[in-house]
């Protein structure tokens, strides 16, 4: 009976459920592969696929249950195939200076820092599978665009492998690098030798052009909006944009591509109507304008190097154009499901990226909500729609923001009420004008207007960010809370249990915001940094590390305090910390006020006090540890 109910549900909503079924197959694969080899996992997947096929033939009344199992197996199989043949092999060497040679894949230029990515790389003459990303001071064409643009380069660099999480549940940089095809990171040392040259890319030329006509601070934001290159954005500006809930404006997504396609579409239709009205009535100009606008959007995506939000927006735009050509409805949940399924099939690793999760959950929520809202014209109607869109996007992405970043922007709706119309009406159209101005005339007069508008946008972000309690630190929330929210959203959107699903979504959001206090008493990073909890803060008695402090704040949601007086020895909340060697015959064994001891060579076999040996941290705390001291 239970399987039959699932069959009936899938029979009506199979297309809608495909991305979630693929996500199940992709999501379980890394866990199983960590226990079994990829080849064994591939064999199990083939056997399971065959069993589902047999089940569909033997029990045709339950065939959609078997089809669901097949989709799950396909997701698993695609991810296993990419993990064996496509994903990068992490460079296993120790941090050292080596000679690197490779083909220039991308250049993210900024005045003070240039980031390059090399493919077909050899390290000291040995070929490696995967790319290398390097920070360099500059490349030969940094000042003179007429010089040969490098294609194959050779340079000395200090390489280091991607790091695992600095503390448990923190950002896994190693997994990020593996799924993005990066084998190692590094920093260039000395000059770069150009072995072969090529013509400069358009993204690099436009970056040079913008930095020539704009200040470095505002130019970095403008380049991010055009090419997706965020290297030149100031760190304080990034913090303000994230804290105000405006960081999504930096991602080239549906807002940007929609404005580009809409502007091109309106320009072509207006031009044909004004110049040759007879041509406008004799031919399907609406269809022609739609196709041309999609081609321009494709060029925009090429310049941005096809990040996940851009791919999602372009595919949605393609479906919209198809709807225009066949006179159908394009903005449906079915369209979102088809696009999500296509991306997961070709790039299954996108499931684990923050951009994929945030963008698709936001689009799914917006399409579901606006299908019940009637569109009206006028300024107040537009303000109402922006308010609804900002509120829905904030609510449906809140669990994911809390899970990945440990923060929630409280005033994001207020910030977007001003920023989104400004971006849609003025900034993006003027950026388009500046690009066409550069291509046609080589000038940059419109960039002065862009600089003014972007400075206003950044000032607005700082106004919101400086408000009291603008950022709420949730700390790390469990994965089950996020999965429960996704399941509730599926019930609300794809089934007949809409009221139940919406109620569960609100409960899940409440669980995220009021997650019980399970913060550990002691956190030790994989490098040996120590944080000891004292009331509503963590005291760090060791030398400060920016990455450790940032990860600690995101994971726990409470502030940190660096105690420089603990360089010799100190006791914090019943925890004794000392950088000196600690032996078992120390009189401290007889002092009951100590509940835990952290020291090198802390061997306390004859004491009733727990201890942690910092000298063995490379073995015992390679991934970092969290310690809960019993009261």
Strand content: 15-25%
Q: What is the subunit organization of this protein?
A: single chain
- In whole angstroms, how far apart are the ends? 49 Å
Tally of strands: 17
Number of helices: 20
Radius of gyration: 27 Å
Provide mean pLDDT, rounded. 77
Poorly predicted runs are 140-147, 617-622
Short description:
The chain has helices at 2-35, 38-58, 63-85, 173-179, 202-213, 216-227, 235-243, 254-275, 277-282, 285-303, 308-326, 333-346, 354-370, 379-405, 412-441, 446-465, 479-494, 498-513, 546-556, 617-620; strands at residues 96-108, 114-123, 126-127, 131-136, 149-160, 182-198, 407-409, 471-473, 522-524, 530-534, 537-540, 559-562, 570-572, 575-577, 596-599, 610-613, 625-627.
Q: How would you describe this structure in keywords?
A:
five-stranded mixed beta sheet, 20 helices, single chain, five-stranded mixed β-barrel, alpha+beta
How is the topology of this model organized?
Layout: H1 2-35, H2 38-58, H3 63-85, E1 96-108, E2 114-123, E3 126-127, E4 131-136, E5 149-160, H4 173-179, E6 182-198, H5 202-213, H6 216-227, H7 235-243, H8 254-275, H9 277-282, H10 285-303, H11 308-326, H12 333-346, H13 354-370, H14 379-405, E7 407-409, H15 412-441, H16 446-465, E8 471-473, H17 479-494, H18 498-513, E9 522-524, E10 530-534, E11 537-540, H19 546-556, E12 559-562, E13 570-572, E14 575-577, E15 596-599, E16 610-613, H20 617-620, E17 625-627
Parallel strand pairs: 4-6, 11-12, 14-15, 15-16
Antiparallel strand pairs: 1-2, 1-5, 2-3, 2-4, 5-6, 7-8, 9-10, 9-17, 10-11, 13-14
Helix pairs in contact: 1-3, 1-12, 2-3, 5-6, 6-16, 7-16, 8-10, 8-11, 8-15, 10-11, 11-12, 13-14, 14-15, 14-18, 15-16, 17-18
């Amino acid at each position: 009976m239970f399987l039959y109910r699932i069959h009936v549900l899938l029979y009506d909503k199979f297309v809608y459920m495909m991305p979630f079924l693929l996500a199940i197959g992709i999501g379980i694969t890394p866990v199983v592969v960590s226990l079994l080899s990829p080849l064994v996992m591939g064999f199990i997947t083939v056997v399971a696929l065959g069993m589902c096929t047999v089940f569909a033939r033997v029990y045709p009344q339950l065939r959609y249950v078997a089809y669901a199992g097949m989709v799950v197996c396909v997701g698993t199989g695609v991810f296993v195939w990419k993990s064996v043949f496509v994903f990068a092999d992490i460079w296993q060497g120790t941090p050292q200076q080596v000679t690197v040679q490779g083909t220039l894949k991308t250049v993210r230029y900024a005045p003070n820092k240039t980031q390059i990515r090399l493919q077909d790389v050899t390290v000291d003459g040995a070929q490696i599978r995967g790319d290398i990303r390097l920070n360099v001071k500059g490349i030969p064409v940094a000042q003179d665009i007429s010089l040969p643009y490098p294609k194959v380069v050779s340079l000395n660099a200090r390489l280091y492998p991607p790091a695992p999480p600095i503390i448990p549940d923190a950002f896994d940089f190693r997994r990020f690098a593996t799924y993005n095809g990066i084998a190692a990171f590094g920093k260039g040392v000395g000059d770069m030798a150009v072995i072969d040259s090529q013509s400069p890319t358009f993204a690099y030329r436009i970056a040079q052009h913008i930095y020539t006509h704009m200040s470095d601070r505002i130019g970095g934001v403008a380049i991010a909006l055009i090419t997706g290159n965020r290297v030149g954005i100031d760190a304080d500006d990034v913090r303000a944009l994230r804290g105000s809930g405006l960081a999504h404006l930096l991602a080239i997504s549906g807002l940007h591509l929609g404005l580009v396609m809409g502007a091109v579409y309106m320009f072509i239709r207006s031009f044909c109507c004004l110049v040759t009205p007879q041509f406008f009535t004799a031919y399907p100009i609406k269809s022609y304008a739609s196709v041309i606008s999609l081609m321009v959007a494709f060029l925009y995506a090429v310049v941005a190097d096809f990040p996940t939000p851009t791919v999602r927006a372009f595919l949605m735009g393609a479906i919209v154009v198809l709807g225009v050509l066949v006179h159908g409805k394009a903005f449906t949940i079915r369209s979102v499901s088809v696009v999500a399924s296509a991306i997961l099939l070709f790039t299954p690793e996108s499931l684990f990226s923050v951009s994929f999760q945030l963008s698709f959950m936001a689009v799914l929520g917006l399409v579901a909500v606006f299908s019940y809202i009637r569109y009206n014209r006028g300024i107040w109607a537009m303000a109402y729609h922006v308010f609804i869109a900002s509120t829905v996007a904030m609510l449906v992405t809140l669990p994911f923001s809390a899970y990945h970043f440990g923060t929630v922007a409280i005033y994001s709706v207020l910030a977007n009420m001003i920023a989104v119309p400004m971006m849609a009406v003025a900034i993006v159209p003027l950026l388009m004008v500046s690009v066409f101005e550069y291509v046609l005339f080589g000038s940059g007069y419109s960039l002065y207007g862009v600089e003014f508008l972007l400075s206003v946008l950044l000032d607005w972000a700082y106004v919101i960010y400086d408000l009291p309690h603008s950022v709420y630190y949730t700390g790390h929330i469990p994965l089950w809370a996020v999965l429960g929210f996704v399941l509730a959203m599926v019930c609300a959107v794809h089934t007949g249990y809409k009221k139940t699903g919406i109620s569960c979504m609100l409960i899940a959001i409440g669980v995220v915001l009021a997650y019980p206090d399970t913060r550990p008493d002691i956190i030790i990073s994989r490098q040996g940094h120590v944080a000891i909890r004292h009331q509503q803060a963590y005291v760090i008695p060791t030398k400060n590390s920016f990455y450790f402090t940032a990860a600690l704040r995101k994971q726990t949601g409470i502030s940190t305090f660096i105690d420089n007086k603990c360089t010799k020895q100190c006791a914090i909340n019943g925890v004794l910390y000392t950088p000196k060697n600690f032996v078992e015959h120390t009189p401290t064994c007889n002092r009951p006020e100590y509940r835990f001891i952290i020291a090198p060579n802390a061997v306390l076999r004859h004491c009733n006090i727990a201890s942690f040996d910092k000298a063995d941290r490379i073995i015992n705390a390679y991934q970092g540890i969290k310690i809960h001291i019993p009261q």
